Amino acid sequence: MKTLLAAALAALTAAACAAPSDGPHTASMPFKLEKATESYEGVAQQVLQVPSYTYVAVKTDGGDVRWAVSLKKRELHEGARVHVRSFGEKEQFESKKLGRTFDRLSFAVIHTEEN
Length: 115
Description:
Elements: H1 2-18, E1 38-49, E2 54-60, E3 65-70, E4 81-95, E5 100-112
Parallel strand pairs: 3-5
Antiparallel strand pairs: 1-2, 1-4, 2-3, 4-5
């Protein structure tokens, strides 16, 4: 599983570095890279855990709420200060494990002040 996640992260990083900002969807990259990489900070308002991933609703320092999914499961709690580095976003992302659709979801690496 770690190998699969590492491969996914490597593919995301390579695509983020190579893809134009308005790049098309592809079979290997199921989301549009609206920005090669983007970083933002805020406070975790909601944390949803599934076996391999962590979804976090982040209230950014600018006041908006953005959903991000960590490419590996993270130990986060609501109220934690987080730094999000997004490698791409998908609109109308359906999580079958959670049984819900996110209007917009960032695929990201998420850090807290503790780690």
